[in-house]
Amino acid sequence: MLSKPLMILSRFARRLTVRVLLMAVFALASAVLAPWLDPLIPPDIKARFGAEAVLPVLNILASTMLTVTTFSLGVMVQAFRAASAQATPRAFRILVADPITQNVLATFTGAFLFALTAIVMFRAGYYDDAAAVVVFGFTVLTIAAIVVAILRWIGHLSRLGSMDHTLLMAEQAARGPLAGVMARPHLGCLPLPADAATEGAEVLADEAGYIQFIDVEGLQACMAQDDARVAVLRRPGSHVVAGTPLAVVIGGTSETLPAVRRHFTLGKTRTLEQDVRFGLLVLTEIGVRALSPGVNDPGTAIDVINRQTGLLAAAGAPQDDPVEYDRVAMPGVTAAELVEAAYASLTRDGADRPEVAHALRSALEALQRSPWADLRDAARRALDRIGPG
To answer: What is the pTM of this model?
Structure first.
């Protein structure tokens, strides 16, 4: 189970600036460490290289990589804005975490900083002719990384910002949380029935926002320390306002409630770490936008329906969730919530279109063969709302 510190680290790792900084640090370190590696170079190789052999290549890298990086950033911004405009603004949060785009831009920026730093070191007299061999070796590795990045970037640019790419990214983003909730429906905690009566001290939200993450491992440790138990009332993805009960604590001390509150991460936007419905809703919003009079693209809506159905069908049924955190109770995600997130808005806006209604009926009929009984029942109720074909 992902703890809160690991969650924060994971979020930082997915940021473009972090990857660029890591590549920049590597580039700077390789340029600075070059003189220290000089004793490892055989004398006959040192005689073949000098500053005059390396500086022209570094000058080319410094000038071209700055241009390429600026151009690539412009293309990325335009593509993501176009995708957000034709799909949904929520898709931007998924697209901006695209690892291929981030790695390519990090490579270009790192190569520029490496070349610029090496040129400065040569001009400042920090490198002698012997160190030029090491710098030349790092330059060859940098060029190889640039070639690989350019080849990946060319293939990626052909689909970046397209509707197919946006749908694929949204589908992949929804797949992970959905598989996770099927493997651990209650995040390793005790199940909390929807109609369970909970009595105890309420932990209240101190701000408005979405519950982005619940550190159940931290809650378990906190409860064990204070000899208490906690019932979580709302799962990640729920929107709360200040004063909304987040959990109920039984037992503990005066310090238990503030400690429990610290294990809830709230924010202004929804995230994918534990929010199983967010990815499905992003796909649904894309389909609803496609059905709007200004777009009038039922084919995209049908594509969304088919992707949603594939996700829910592949997820299967919730597995037996071994109780790892026996002092924490957590409500589970219901099949009705998943079906509503995937099809409710599309049913409202597309049921009067024969081709979309047919796709919805086919999708819900397929889900009625699911091994999850609750999903079969939810699909049957949703199909009744559409009516006969």
So the answer is: 0.81
